[in-house]
Automatic annotation (TrEMBL):
Residues 340-453 form the 3-octaprenyl-4-hydroxybenzoate carboxy-lyase-like C-terminal domain. Residues 21-105 form the 3-octaprenyl-4-hydroxybenzoate carboxy-lyase-like N-terminal domain. This is Carboxylase. GO terms for molecular function: carboxy-lyase activity. GO terms for biological process: cinnamic acid catabolic process; ferulate metabolic process. One of its GO terms (cellular component) is cytoplasm.
Length: 537
């Protein structure tokens, strides 16, 4: 059950991850595990079970308090998994609103971003480890789990918000990217698409002759920052500002100890370092959100210079890989909001709703419901989507089609669309994690040859006034519901549409015939038809 906004304490946003975890626990959404759990072989499989075997409403965030690893080492910090988006209810707790209010909160945050404030220090600097402190153990101090044991080639950070900045404007990017642990002081990063913030920054720093880019990985922050970090916001928008808008208050930032990047002062852990801009090495395979292992590929890496953290940090991870997952939930909600905003900003007021189904990894299928005003609304929306949000397939449907119900989509595709007229294939921006773009081993476009990626644009709106939906009229269905209840039959969960309605093509004559029929006077219609006979040649 989602917590209503009025149930929440004080109106202040969560100061840190700790306060948020307390709220999860009070809401009955936290599963504590105190027995020893091997982070490399047991943790992710255990939590994965809730995505393969439970109803979404029963999923929880998990707090592991006694962590070991495949070599029997013990870790002195707990780990929280699925805390940001184990379910829609959990996401709503992260925004201190109800599930229904989430889209409005996102709209508001994008329209009213709040700039961060800079503070001289914060809890994230309670421990500062660098130089000799990190000689023996650096990344292995952190309980970084293996996400897909049996297939992944290393532990990877997953809730890792990579910070980098534009060399000219100084605008910070906060983007969530996996981080492959390669050595005590070396961690890989795989920014999969050319337009992604960190990838742009690496290329910009390189073009300006810098052989390394300052970078930092932020782990464990209040949810608003994570929600912004995983969302494709325009490149000239800083995620810290949108996170402030989501939180309703400015995010406090403090400067790293190795360079001048700004990180949340309330974070649990920050790993600082530099990314060589002109060297790549192999990264992967890693289980990814499209539901397959992402092939090994050349990519960048960071050389670690410092780890700063709280006295008692909590490590945080996302459960990603096969959808649905925490990743498909957290990205799906953010992308839906960003895409809706993108269409509205382009003047498409006819757009009622956008949805990226989780089974498409909240990426592959983009569904848009419109109240059509002009004949070419759907065509122009599809053209605009193809520049950024099409995924693999974008489908625009009419206002009365429930875009959360696959059966309603099949209905629209079957009878509101003609492929020769309403379907187009267009080139779209490359997304290297899509396993269908090229076979394993072939270039995925990180450098060198860029494989082609295409998207299907489908206008499944009705092209002219249609006859009514062939279900009994509303008054008859309402009568039937009363009868159903009188008979004591099982509770109904009605799917839209559950009654017939007019779609523009229904003459007064046809309406009258139906009314006559419902009164039992259908012979009147039969008589009329006798009078209108035609003779075949
Ligand atoms: C759990 C998780 C892991 C992710 N890992 C990656 C990754 O390794 N590479 C990538 O390109 N995108 C990854 N993403 C998607 C990006 O976070 C997302 O596209 C984000 O908008 C990028 O932001 P930016 O362009 O501002 O940097 C991940 C998302 C989630 C939820």
């Amino acid at each position: 059950m989602a917590t209503a906004a009025s149930d929440l304490p004080s109106g202040q946003y969560y100061r840190d991850l700790n306060e948020y975890i307390d709220t999860l626990e009070r809401a009955g959404k936290l599963q504590r595990v105190t027995r020893p759990i091997d982070k490399d072989t047991q943790m992710h499989p255990l939590v994965r079970l809730q995505f393969r075997g439970l109803e979404e409403k029963d999923r929880k965030a998990w707090l592991f308090e006694n962590i070991t690893d495949a070599k029997g080492r013990k870790y002195d910090m707990p780990l929280v998994l699925c805390a940001m988006a184990g379910s829609s209810d959990i996401y709503a707790l992260g925004l201190q609103c109800t599930v229904e209010e989430i889209p409005r909160r996102w709209d508001h945050a994008q329209a009213h971003p709040i700039a961060p404030v800079i503070v001289s220090s914060g809890p994230v600097h309670e421990q500062i480890l660098r130089g000799d402190d990190l000689k023996e153990r650096c990344l292995s101090r952190l309980p970084i789990p293996i996400s897909t044991p049996g297939f992944d080639n290393a532990p990877y950070t997953t809730a890792s918000h990579w910070i980098s900045k534009d060399p000219d404007s100084g605008l910070h990017n906060v983007g969530n990217y996996r981080g492959m642990v390669k050595a005590e002081d070396r961690i890989g990063v795989y920014p999969a698409s050319p337009g992604y913030g960190m990838r742009r920054h690496i290329e910009m720093w390189r073009e300006r002759g810098h052989d390394r880019l300052p970078a930092a990985i932020v782990i464990g922050v209040p949810p608003a920052i994570s929600y912004a970090a995983v969302t494709r916001l325009p490149n000239d928008v800083c995620e810290y500002d949108v996170a402030g808008g989501l939180a309703g208050q400015a995010i406090e930032l403090t400067q790293c100890v190795s360079h001048d990047l700004l990180v949340p002062a309330q974070a649990q852990i920050v790993v600082e370092g530099f990314v060589p801009t002109n060297i790549q090495e192999m990264e992967g395979p890693f289980g990814e959100f499209p539901g397959y292992m992402a092939a090994r590929d050349y990519s960048w890496f960071m050389e670690v210079t410092a780890i700063t953290m709280r006295k008692k940090p909590i490590y945080q991870a996302f459960l990603s890989q096969f959808p649905p997952s925490e990743s498909s939930k957290i990205r799906g909600i953010g992308w839906t909001a960003a895409c809706f905003d993108y269409l509205k900003a382009a003047g498409f007021d006819c757009v009622q709703e956008v949805h990226f189904p989780e089974t498409s990894g909240s990426f592959g299928v983009c569904l848009v419901r419109i109240r059509r005003e002009k004949d070419d609304d759907a065509t122009r929306i599809l053209d605009h989507l193809s520049k950024k949000f099409v995924g693999k397939m974008a489908i625009v449907v009419d206002e009365d089609v429930d875009i959360h119900d696959p059966n309603a989509i099949y209905w629209a595709l079957s009878y509101a669309m003609q492929p020769h007229r309403d379907v187009r294939v267009v080139d779209i921006p490359l997304m290297a994690l899509d396993p269908s773009i090229a076979p394993p081993g072939a270039s995925r476009g990180l450098t060198g040859e860029k494989p082609r990626m295409s998207g299907l644009l489908i206008d499944a709106t009705r092209d002219w006034p249609y006859p009514p939906v062939s279900l009994p009229g509303k008054e008859f269905m309402e009568g039937a519901i009363a009868l159903w209840q009188e008979l004591g039959l099982p509770e109904l969960k009605l799917r839209k549409p559950w009654f017939g309605y007019n779609l523009g093509s229904w003459s007064a004559d046809e309406a009258q015939e139906a009314a006559l029929a419902a009164r039992g006077d259908y012979f009147v219609t039969g008589e009329k038809q006798r009078g209108e006979r035609r003779t075949l040649d």
